[in-house]
Structures are given as C-alpha cells and as structure tokens.
Amino acid sequence: MPPKTASAFACSECGWTTAKWVGRCGECQAWGTVDVVGGSSRNGRTAAGPVSSPAVPIAQVTATEAASVGSGIPELDRVLGGGVVSGAVMLMAGEPGVGKSTLLLEVAARWARAGRRTLYVSGEESAAQVRLRAERTGALADELFLAAETDLGGLLTHIDAVKPSLLIVDSVQTIGSASIEGVPGGVTQVREVAATVIGRAKAEGIATLLVGHVTKDGSVAGPRVLEHLVDVVLQFEGDRTSRLRLLRATKNRFGPVDEIGCFDLVDAGIVEVPDPTGLFVSRHESPVPGTCVTVTMEGRRPLLAEVQALTVAATTPSPRRSSSGLDSSRVAMLLAVLSKTGVSLGNQDVYTASVGGARLHEPSVDLAVALAVISAAGGSPLPGGLVAIGEVGLAGEVRPVRGLEARLREAARIGFTHAIVPTGTENLDRVGLKVLRTGDLAAALRALP
C-alpha cells in the first residue's frame, strides 16, 4: 500500500515551507506568497536514482569549460570579471528607459560580429521595432538572429533552430508557458520560465542574458528565488537628468561584485566611458567659494567628484537644509558638528549638492562637504588644485578611509596638486601630489595651503 501524501506549501519569495497554508510567510513576512507546491511523503524518504555524471575528485575536474570569453564591450567584461562564461545565466535589472535593451542589443551585435551566433528574443517589442533601433545604433550583424516571442515553447523552438552561443531574452516577465496557470509576469510563470531557460542554458552551454523588471523600490520584480537561480545579477542604473549609466554586479559567481562599468547614453545608442572622472567635476576660471573636490570609490574605480555648498540668510524661523546627490541625514550630522566647532549656521539656509548628478553616499566625502560649507559660510574660496578625503566623526575627528593611495593617484593624474587626508595613513610620498594630514576639522582649516 503506497504511503499517504500531504500537501506542502512554500513561499514563492524566500522558499520557506510549511505543512499548512498561511496568509503570511513566517520567514520573510510577505503576504499572499505561500502556495501549494505538491505532495510530499509522510516518511520524507526519497529512493535513490540515476546520476547525470559520477562524482570525481575536485582536482580532476577540468576548468576549461568555465573560462570566460570577451563580450566585445570591455566595460561589461570588467563588471563580469573578465568576460562571459559559457552556460552562465545573467540577470540584468533596471528602471524603464534606462537603456537595458539598447545595451544588450549592442552586446548581441558585437558578439555576432566575432563570428559567434546570437539569438535575441524580444517579448516587449516587435521584430520590426528592434530592427529599427538596431539600424539607428549600428547594431546589425549577419550572425545576429532576432525573434519576437512570448511563448516559452516557441522560445525553446527558436533555440533548437538557431543553436546560439549567446541568448538574450528581453524580458523574462513577458514570456509565459501555456502549461502553467497564471499570466506572464506572475510568480509561478516567472519561476517556470526562468527554471526552463536556465536548465537549457546549462545543458547546452549557452551564455544567457535575461532582462528583469524592477519594483518601485528598485529591486528585481518576481520571486526572490529568481536571483538565487542565476549566476550573475547586474543592476543598470542611471539618472533621467544625466546621460551617464552605471552597470554594477550585486551577485557574481565568476568574479568580483565591487566593479562598475560606465556608459554614456547618446542619440546613436550607448557608448563606453572608460574615464568618467570629468563628468562630475566642473571647471572654474578661478576658485569660487563653496566648492570642494573629493575622490570616491565606485567599486575598485576611483572617481573625482565635486561637492558644492551655498549658505544664505534664513527668512523663516526654521532654517532650511536641502541636499541633492548627498545623504541628507549625513549632511545634517556634518552641519551639527560644524556648529559645535564654532561655525555659525543657526540663522543660515544651507544647500548642498553634487555636480553632474553623481550620488555620493560614501563617508569619505564628509571632509569635502564640511570644507565646502565652511568656504560658503565665510565667503572665501578654497585653494585651487585641492582635494579633500576623509570621514568626519561626531567629535569632529577626521577618520581614515579605504583605498586612499588609489584615490590620490587618480587626483594627481587629473592635475591636482594638494590633498587633505586623515592622519595615521600609510606612506603616501609617491602619489604625485603634496599630502597634508589632519586629525580634525580645525586642523584641516589650519593645514590649507
């Protein structure tokens, strides 16, 4: 007599399981994500079955199949850790209109120009629309095959017919399976489509790029298990008021997750920006009050950025504090520290901003923000050719930051001559500029050349 089975329930977001249905997941606290996943044996035993390949000592496993191949776009290869790995599945997410499809169409064209067959499957646009964009951006290639498909079965048929080495699906939320209940984009459909495509990519060694939609808070839409299934999760970011686009990896099984790629969205498509430093620094004929340059670290890449400050007499009992591109809570903390150290800001409206739409949330910009506010309040410009790097504590001390030598080398390469850095840092005699060490804000003002 076969053993009795009972239904099992699992959360589609985190995979938490329970023996009975509940309205709210007990692990991630999400509502309405617990659903039945099938029957499970009462005794929990599973019979042994055939294996796909025998287990061997790890030293005998060949690593040639996992070697990376250049995609033709160095900035993308930089983020991926050297290139695209055969059979790897990558998920790219980003806000609507940021340029995901344009970037992937360029990737497909450069891959195809190298004589490697590419299949681009569009579920959101017709083939004619993609063709027009490819003609505008110069992304036409003989080995680039294009298909407009929204059915999972049809997608698999295209893969069998074309036999590509690179597959791009734009997007995974638009593909549906007729054998699964729910509408395309739903939790069940996305999980089935992703699992099927990933299984085919692993079995046939097809490098795969999936486009994913994002929610209002910027996270990948659909079940959380989708990010666990893929090998690489890429985030494509950009401000609508700026042409600069940043590509970063939040998960990467084949390389680091602290690298970024920079791109410029232009009328003719998207181009790489190997040296984006100048985009975040304005050029003044002579030094002006309220400006200071710092060096941030985006992954492993140092980038110069300029912060600006403006102070005006308050016209209301409560002075206004406004920030753009900076962490407003951290700026408020810095203003409190400055007031404690003797800088009078109680009757002043204070405005702080970054140049070029840069988002500066790293603590290393604290010293630059503080010096910019002091310069604006006193009406005296900081010396030209100066960069300030350091984290400011609540007691007014200036703390060391990581990667200081790489930051200073980048500043020297651009042409800066002086730098104010925290005390207690390593030997910086060979960075190419004059280094002024300081322990607190008062000492930083005294150290200004």
From TrEMBL:
Keyword Nucleotide-binding attributed: yes
Pfam families documented for this protein: AAA_25, ChlI, Zn_ribbon_LapB
Short sequence motif RadA KNRFG motif: positions: 251-255
Keyword match ATP-binding: yes
Keywords: ATP-binding, DNA damage, DNA repair, DNA-binding, Hydrolase, Metal-binding, Nucleotide-binding, Stress response, Zinc, Zinc-finger
Ranges for domain RecA family profile: 65-214
A GO CC term attached to the entry: cytosol
Gene Ontology biological process terms from the UniProt entry: recombinational repair
Positions contributing to ATP binding: 94-101
Any one GO MF annotation of this record: hydrolase activity
SMART domains xref list: AAA
Purpose: Plays a role in repairing double-strand DNA breaks, probably involving stabilizing or processing branched DNA or blocked replication forks. DNA-dependent ATPase involved in processing of recombination intermediates, plays a role in repairing DNA breaks. Stimulates the branch migration of RecA-mediated strand transfer reactions, allowing the 3' invading strand to extend heteroduplex DNA faster. Binds ssDNA in the presence of ADP but not other nucleotides, has ATPase activity that is stimulated by ssDNA and various branched DNA structures, but inhibited by SSB. Does not have RecA's homology-searching function.
Protein name in UniProt: DNA repair protein RadA
Gene: radA
